Amino acid sequence: MNHDPFHWGRPSQETYGGYNYNIANASNHQQESQLDNFPKVHSQQPIITGTSVVSLKFKHGIIMAADNLGSYGSLLRFNNLERLIKVGSQTVVGISGDISDLQQIERILHELEIEQEIYDSDGGHHLRAPHVHEYLSKILYNRRTKMDPLWNAVIVGGFNDDGTPFLKYIDLLGVTYTSSTLATGFGSHLAVPLLRQLIPNDIDYENIEEDEARKVLENCMRVLFYRDARASDKYSLVTIKSESNEGESTPKKLSYNHETELKVEGQSWKFAKDISGYGSKQL
Amino acid sequence: MTNATVASEYSAEVNHVPIEHRFNPYSDNGGTVLGIAGEDFAVLAGDTRQVEGYSIHSRYQPKVFNVGDDIIMTANGFAADGAALIDRFKNQLKWYKFDHGGKKLSIQSAARYIQHLLYGKRFFPYYVYTIIAGLDENGKGAVYSYDPVGSYEREQCRAGGAAASLIMPFLDNQVNFKNQFEPGTDGKQKKELRYLSLDEVLELVKDAFSSATERHIYVGDGLEILIVTKDGVRTEYYPLKRD
After folding, report:
1. Cβ atoms A49, A41 nearer than 8 A
2. A210 in any annotated domain
């Protein structure tokens, strides 16, 4: 017996041949082979994912961190990914979300870099963070409009044309915003409050030294490792800063420093013994 | 794509449907905006908070812009669509000038053009409430407001976005004097309409936003007011509560 509910009580095709729908004049009947011809659906969900990117501005530049993990659902699939991408000479792009889309963005940015920086057709104009951000935001917004999104949240860091630090976010919907403290995904819940403790008002980054900023960022990576099950304790960190002294009118010298294979230091799991059920034990 | 078999008594019906986890191309980024026209000025104000869900993503992300030709514009709702709409308008205004020897675009022409930008995406709309403000050809203040698919009208005042429903009745009462009567007439004689001064309008705007901040979680952080007069556009900023 054929157990398919749509074929109950039908003469078996092997014995009697397929039913001729023209008999019943059923002209609008769809053949079963046609049933898969649904409109093209760009289905999506992220497959292998990278978790938060965390970043902030300080007095002389910006600092950004992201761990090196690629998760396949709850499986820790890759532990050697680099999610902080250098574009041009003074811009970093930190990407969370789907890793294959990350690699697509990486390719697009590489092409942009070749076009704009190697074939320097615009007379010494250099690719800077606002340009990279504008370009990426158009790509992500265009893809969401086609209902075929690049499933990522991205932070672009670097400098404005006037030399002030630049930090701006874009996500798969094309939504963008600036702030002196930015984080994607879980980081926007866990890290941003810690970052805003250091920089309560957007303008306050002007008083923050690099070592203060770095200390808070390292703390964010620790907190994320504690509480984000998709985070790892191995991460990369990029610092971009201008080296000039205040009041100098000469063009500022910029340094781009990419550190890899950093470990979350000073972990303490003492709190773990008090955890039972869905939270710390009520005494 | 996974197909699920849906039980049916008759096989002539389409029997496989895709299980849909559809990508949602929209989100709500909160914020609220407000435009008021005076006799020889117009203001457009917006808070500077940008949110998604319960997260405040930015405390200073301006959404009211001087788009040129003494026209100020805002598109509040889904931030990506708002930015796209304003970008498109600015771009078209640039081309209008190239094509017409730098001619100034009047506010009513700008208003009609924006209708076409919005209605052009009638079946995949820009999810935004749009308001523009400026001065008309007689130098009088003008505010035009739109729904997401381009229906528009010229008004004396309009609130849009998250706290529109909180602010609009206040404006009806304070700008158009709705439900206000002359004292001593036993509610028989309506209070006569008059133009408000710029100072009165700015006070109304500040009160509206500080009240909306109290009662709506999507409103707060800062208030940016753009003011158009015959001398051009200027901007004022006032802090709002950040909680």
Report:
1. no
2. yes
Alpha carbons A174 and B137: distance in angstroms, whole number: 37
Token pair 């700015």 in the structure block, residue: B202
- The partner residue sitting opposite B11, judged by closest CB among A6, A147, A149, is A6
Q: How far apart are CA B44 and CA B168, in angstroms?
A: 14
| CB nearest A6 (choices: B1, B15, B59) | B15
CATH number, domain containing residue A135: 3.60.20.10
Nearest CA in chain A to B126: A145
pTM as predicted:
0.86
* Closest by Cα among B242, B205, B200 to B222: B242
Q: Residue A72 belongs to what domain range?
A: 48-264
Q: Integer distance in angstroms from the first to the last C-alpha of chain B?
A: 44
Question: Count of domains in chain A?
Answer: 1
Specify if A278 maps to a domain: no
Cα angle B200, B206, B211 (rounded to 5 degrees) comes to 125
Helix axes A129-145, B79-99, angle to 10 degrees: 110
- Quote the CA–CA distance of A80 and A83 in Å, as a whole number: 10
Q: Which residues of chain A make contact with B61, given a CB cutoff of 8 A?
A: 177-179
Whether residue B57 and residue A179 make contact (CB cut-off 8 A), yes or no, is yes
- Helix then strand then coil, in percent of chain B rounded to 5, is 25, 30, 40
What's the angle, vertex CA B35, arms to CA B30 and CA B41, rounded to 5?
150
Enter the ipTM: 0.89
Residues of B in contact with A36 (CB under 8 A): 3, 16
Whether A258 maps to a domain, the answer reads: yes
Strands B152-155 and B42-47: unpaired
Q: Would residue A189 count as lying in a domain? A: yes
Dist CA A211 CA A167 (whole Å): 19
A10 with B16: Cβ contact below 8 A: no
Span B56-96, pLDDT tens digits:
999 999 999 999 999 999 999 999 999 999 999 999 999 99
Lowest mean per-residue pLDDT among A19-28, A104-113, B195-204: A19-28
